[in-house]
Amino acid sequence: MTRDTITKGRLPNAPASVYYIPDFISSEEEQNLINKVLSAPKPKWVHLKNRRLQNWGGVVVNNAMVAEPLPPWLTSFNPRFRELEVFEGLDPIHKDPNHCLINEYLPGQGILPHKDGPAYHPTVATVSLSSHCVLEFFKFSDLSEDRKNQEPEFSILVQPRSLLVLKEDVYNHYMHGIREVHSDNLTEGNILNLDRAFPPNNPAPISPLQRDTRISLTFRIVPKTIRGNRFLAPPKK
User: Fold this and answer.
1) Which of 39, 154, 196, 222 has a CB 3.0–4.6 Å from the CB of 65, allowing a cystine?
2) What does the DSSP 8-state code read for residue 68?
3) In 91-192, alpha helices (H)
4) Rounded to an integer, what distance in angstroms lies between the CA atom of residue 64 and that of residue 211?
């Protein structure tokens, strides 16, 4: 029997390194994860202008991470990641993701087009909770200074409970972002996965899709990890 890998989620009209799997987790798993995120200690939250976030696994500084173990509710994804070969062959030491960034987006919040940077291996796996978003992609060489109003080369509708994996070419040569809007018109932005984002008996709505609060769990491998005591000042003589 042929083993299912992440290639089963490849989108025909997108770059070969974009993979989308709907219903990657169940509704019960989704609610348990939401409860874990929202019950995190207040100091765990970092408040930015357009969203708030949590770092798990450590804080990345100068392309290296002061590592700490991920909690069990995040490492629970590792068997499925291994089965799908999401992070296969990336790192001889780290077979599973060692970092998870959790972002909370309220309706109307988003993020400007950006790249994830060289601190990570070129594979990112995102599990979405509670609400959808439309993730827009721009070729790095084509992006203008007016990032808020530029039309994307293509977009992906990221539904709750789905898994989105970005690898190699699209990781290295594209920027991705989320517009700061309260609803998404699914006829705009060259959305490539509408046929997979909605079940066959429930096609995509014609009217704009209203956003709710969305939580994203973004898993990566940081290859360079260091001990926290390397940042401590040497003792005075």
Assistant:
1) 222
2) -
3) 168-173
4) 35
